[in-house]
Each structure stands twice: as structure tokens, then as C-alpha cells.
Design a protein that fits this description.
The chain is of the alpha/beta class. The chain has two domains: about 10-65, no CATH class; about 120-360, Alpha-Beta Barrel (TIM Barrel), CATH 3.20.20.450. It has helices at about 10-15, 70-115, 160-165, 165-185, 200-205, 205-220, 240-250, 265-275, 285, 295-310, 320-330, 345-360, and strands at about 1-5, 20-30, 50-55, 60-65, 120-130, 135-145, 150, 195-200, 225-230, 255-260, 280, 310-315, 335. Strands 5-6-8-9-10-11-12-13 form an eight-stranded mixed beta barrel, surrounded by six helices. Strand 3 (about 50-55) and strand 4 (about 60-65) form a beta hairpin. Mean pLDDT is about 85; it is low at about 5-10. The protein binds ligand C2E and calcium ion (2 copies). One calcium ion binds near residues 260, 283 and 316. One calcium ion binds near residues 139, 197, 229 and 259.
Length: about 350
């Protein structure tokens, strides 16, 4: 290191020369631009622009000139280290990506296996007409009995099944089983509705819907007893195509309901575009009853809209008497939730239906 004190330079310093050195020059603001002469500055460090300059409050200036060779030596020294750090992080990224790909692949193959082994089972949650105090129908909610032993809830596989398209096969298995189970207890002798969840992608696929309708027609259950709930969580990619399919379904007697109304993509545009007559009010809004949550206004607006449009409304996630009463007072008499019953296995659902019949 050479230090140059302006205006006098000690000869001994001036004649110092080193390879790979840093030249720090301490000077004053008055002498800032003064040309510095170095007797033995073979590397011409003093002529290089300083790498950094620090001006202190008292007018003293510190400039550092660095030999480019030194910079390259430093970067050479750092290269192996940078390489190791880079390789380390690269490896971590690789392991994470690999983990997720494997997880997805294994989830994919496990779902496929589950479909062939018919591990996807319908559970039934009653929908109650609180006004008439009778069962209006039920919603079919899938449960995965993995290996016949472990119960997996929809939130753990439905998002993947929906995005990968495997939901189509799951719905087929579910529908087949539902029609078989409910016709075995003469569901067709009642006028109760069976509501099945569908995603927008399914309603844009006419061929798939034709197959679904065929399956229903072949059973003893009338298409008039079937409703499809389309979730708002996913968007339609082709509204016109979906409108044609929905018209086809309506012509077959199948009602299409807007599920999770108010939570996702264009509720009201879907209602308009598809001329829907039914909507399901999400639990998110029902939860606000009896609270000061501002979403209570949203609930009231959805109800006001539904009434004005003459729509059938079903409130889901009803857990308390207070919620049920509020909804009934506001004209929403079709209700579903733990206050009445959780989703039930077929055998338990049959018991619920029997008990419900005996009440009347
Ligand atoms: P969703 O269609 O909004 O169904 C209602 C969900 O709320 C169900 O959850 C039901 O068990 C739950 N629930 C009903 N009443 C209450 C209540 O009072 N309190 C509470 N805490 N929860 C209540 P589940 O069965 O876990 O299903 C979650 C979601 O998975 C469903 O939401 C639906 O979007 C999707 N899903 C379920 N089955 C199917 C299916 O077969 N196909 C498709 N595409 N999606 C399905
Ligand atoms: Ca639903
Ligand atoms: Ca919902």
C-alpha cells in the first residue's frame, strides 16, 4: 500500500512499488484535482480513476486507486468460492424442484390407482328446506378412502385433480356410485335433488357432458333430480361454448347452480350469460351473521340480488340456529350445514333420510 500525503510526498513512499497493491491517497478538497506525480508508479495507479472516494466533513479526501491486476486476482480467488456457493444453491433448487415433481407424479399415479380401485366415495350432505321442515336434497361431496383405510379430504387432492383434468374420471366414478346407491333406496320416488360439483372445464366439454347425461339416463334417477354446482373458484375459458353445453343440460332437465357465489370470478356475469336460476351462498358470508364483519353487507346484497332476480338460493355452511334464523327471516329457506348434518357416508345418510321422513 502506498500513502500519498499531499502536498509533500515522502520519497520513500513515492518510490515504493508493489504488485497487486492499493494506492490510498489522502488529500484535501483544495487539492482534489491536482495531478499527482509518482516517481516510481510503474503501474500508473495514480492515473487510474479512483475506485472510491470519501470526502470527510473537515475537507479531507480519501481516494483509493486499485491495481486492476489485484481486482482480477481477487476475482480469481473468489471464483472457486462462487462456484461452490452457486453449485450449492443450484443443488438445493434442483432438490426442491425434484421433490415437487416427484410429489406431483406420485399424487398423479396415486389418484389414477384410486380411480381404478374405486377409492373415491360419495358422501352426502343434506340440504334442508327450513320453511317446510323437510329435505330438499343433498350435495355429493367426494371422499378418498386411500388404500381403503386412510380418509383424505377434498382440499388435499381436489385442486390437483381439477388442474390435471383427473377430476373428470373422479366425477365419473362418483356419479356412477351415487346413482347406484341412491336408486337402491328408491330416491326416484321422491322429488329430492342430488347436487354434484363440476368445474368450468367439465361444462365446456360437450362430449364429456353427453357421457354424463347418458349415465344418468341409464339409471333410474331422473335428470330432473340432478343439479350441477359450478364453482366460481375457476374461470371459464370459453363462455359461449359453456353456454351451449349448459343449454343442452337444461334441455335434459338438469339444473345448473352457481356455487360459492360472490367468492371468485364473475358471479353475476355467469348468472347473466348462462341464465342461471340458482345460486349457493358461500359459508364465508354465512359466517358473518351475528358479527360486525363488513362482509355481512355482501351477504345482504347477494340475498337482495337473488330475490330481485327471482333466483333459488341455498345457503351453505350453516352452523348455528342464529344463522339459520337470520337466513330464513331474509327469505333464504334452503340451507345446508353442520347445524343440520355433516356430509355422511351412504349408510348414515340413509338413516338421516329415514329419520327425516318419520318427522312428517
Ligand atoms: P363446496 O362445494 O363449497 O362444499 C361445501 C364444503 O363445506 C364441504 O367441504 C362441506 O363439507 C363443507 N361444509 C358444509 N357445511 C359446513 C359447515 O357447517 N361448517 C363447515 N366448517 N364446513 C361445512 P368438503 O367436503 O371438504 O369439500 C371442499 C370442497 O371440495 C367443496 O366445496 C368443493 O369445492 C370441492 N369438492 C368436493 N367434492 C367435489 C367433487 O366431487 N368434485 C369437485 N369438482 N369438487 C369437489
Ligand atoms: Ca358445492
Ligand atoms: Ca363453498
Amino acid at each position: 500500500m502506498s500513502i500519498y500525503f499531499e502536498p509533500r510526498i515522502a520519497d520513500v513512499m513515492r518510490n515504493q512499488y508493489c504488485d497487486n497493491c492499493i494506492l490510498s491517497v489522502i488529500t484535501t478538497l483544495d487539492n482534489f484535482d491536482k495531478k499527482i506525480y509518482f516517481h516510481n508508479d510503474i503501474n500508473n495507479l495514480s492515473k487510474l480513476p479512483p475506485l472510491n472516494i470519501k470526502v470527510f466533513n473537515n475537507g479531507v479526501v480519501l481516494k483509493n486507486h486499485v491495481d486492476p491486476k489485484l481486482l482480477s486476482v481477487i476475482s480469481m480467488d473468489l471464483k472457486p468460492l462462487l462456484f461452490i456457493v452457486g453449485a450449492f444453491f443450484g443443488m438445493i433448487v434442483f432438490l426442491i424442484v425434484n421433490y415437487y415433481i416427484k410429489r406431483k407424479l406420485s399424487l398423479h399415479s396415486l389418484i389414477l390407482k384410486g380411480i381404478t380401485r374405486k377409492e373415491f366415495i360419495p358422501y352426502y350432505q343434506p340440504i334442508i328446506d327450513v320453511y317446510k321442515n323437510e329435505m330438499y336434497g343433498c350435495e355429493v361431496l367426494v371422499r378418498w378412502w386411500f388404500n381403503g383405510k386412510e380418509l383424505i379430504l377434498p382440499d388435499d387432492f381436489i385442486p390437483y385433480a381439477e388442474n390435471s383434468g383427473l377430476i373428470i374420471n373422479i366425477t365419473d366414478v362418483l356419479l356412477e356410485k351415487t346413482l347406484m346407491q341412491l336408486s337402491s333406496v328408491n330416491w326416484q320416488d321422491s322429488s329430492a335433488i342430488i347436487s354434484i360439483n363440476m368445474i368450468p372445464g367439465q361444462l365446456e366439454d360437450k362430449q364429456h357432458m353427453r357421457e354424463v347425461v347418458d349415465l344418468i339416463i341409464k339409471s333410474s334417477i331422473s335428470p330432473k333430480q340432478i343439479a350441477f354446482e359450478i364453482t366460481e373458484r375457476m374461470s371459464f375459458s370459453d363462455l359461449d361454448k359453456a353456454a351451449t353445453v349448459i343449454d343442452y343440460l337444461k334441455a335434459q332437465g338438469i339444473n345448473v347452480k352457481l356455487d360459492d357465489a360472490g367468492t371468485g370470478y364473475g358471479s353475476f356475469s355467469y348468472i347473466q350469460h348462462f341464465n342461471l336460476q340458482s345460486l349457493k351462498i358461500d359459508k364465508m358470508f354465512v359466517d358473518t351473521i351475528g358479527t360486525h364483519d363488513h362482509k355481512l353487507f355482501v351477504l345482504d346484497s347477494i340475498i337482495a340480488f337473488g330475490k330481485k332476480a327471482g333466483m333459488e338460493m341455498i345457503a351453505e355452511g350453516v352452523e348455528t340456529k342464529q344463522q339459520s334464523d337470520y337466513l330464513l327471516q331474509n327469505g333464504v329457506y334452503l340451507q345446508q350445514g353442520f347445524y343440520f348434518s355433516e356430509p355422511l357416508k351412504f349408510e348414515q345418510f340413509c338413516i338421516f333420510v329415514e329419520q327425516n321422513k318419520r318427522k312428517h
